[in-house]
Design a protein that fits this description.
Oligomer: single chain
CATH topology: Nucleotidyltransferase, domain 5
Helix content: 40-55%
Order of helices and strands: HEEHEHHEEHHHH
CATH architecture: 2-Layer Sandwich
Largest sheet: 5 strands, mixed
CATH class: Alpha Beta
Distance between the termini: 41 Å
Mean pLDDT: 95
CATH superfamily: Ribonuclease H-like superfamily/Ribonuclease H
Strand content: 15-25%
């Protein structure tokens, strides 16, 4: 089946409706057994112009291509940010709350950069708004299934988040060797689970997700 590249059709609908900015939002690392969950956000406006060639949902791109696109996306968007919630927070608070927590941290970063968050539509991938429950001030949040595939702002957010989180995971190879972080990025591959059985769990693991491997 052919893969469709994302477009700015949805973003332009928001601009035509009076929105000044659209903040694409996507998460990575939700299903991992180690490492943080990360939420990327990308602020776009009508003035941003054409998005970089080859932009797609991060899951549809090679690591090399994501790393090539990331600096181009940083130049294209008005503002970009990634927020994280670490493994201990996932254990203590649960993954859904931590998605919101990471998203809130990304929004705080955007605000500190000068983004007008309150005048933006936040376009969230999926059909569940996990962001609103953690916010003290209501924002205009819209959910859309497959937004990471179809919408340029969300695809950009997915790449920003994926590159950021992957770099964090790769860096752990020097800190906690033997778990294959560079290859598995914290997901539960066979080799990773074997390493947990042999070496045990670390503070980087989501212990509540790995009770059977303790």
């Amino acid at each position: 089946m052919a893969v469709c590249d994302p477009t700015d059709v949805v973003e332009r609908e928001f601009f035509s409706g009076g929105s000044r900015f659209v903040i694409g939002c996507d998460e990575v690392g939700r299903g991992a057994v180690a490492g943080p969950v990360a939420v990327g956000m990308a602020v776009v406006a009508e003035t941003c112009g054409a998005h970089p060639d080859g932009l797609r949902d991060s899951k549809l791109l090679s690591q090399k291509r994501r790393e090539e696109l990331e600096p181009l996306l940083r130049k294209w968007v008005l503002f970009g940010a990634v927020g994280i919630a670490d493994a201990r927070e996932v254990d203590d608070l649960g993954i859904v709350h931590c998605l919101g927590l990471a998203g809130k941290r990304a929004l705080q970063s955007l605000h500190s950069q000068g983004a007008d968050v309150s005048s933006s539509v936040i376009l969230l991938d999926g059909n569940h708004d996990w962001l609103s429950p953690v916010l003290s001030t209501p924002l205009d949040i819209r959910t859309r299934v497959k937004a990471d595939r179809d919408c340029v702002s969300v695809a950009a957010a997915s790449v920003l988040a994926k590159v950021h989180r992957d770099a964090m995971m790769i860096a752990q190879d020097a800190v906690l060797p033997g778990y294959g972080w560079s290859g598995n990025k914290g997901y539960g591959s066979g080799e990773h689970l074997d390493a947990i059985r042999t070496l045990g769990m670390t503070d980087f693991h989501r212990k509540s997700w790995l009770v059977s491997y303790a």
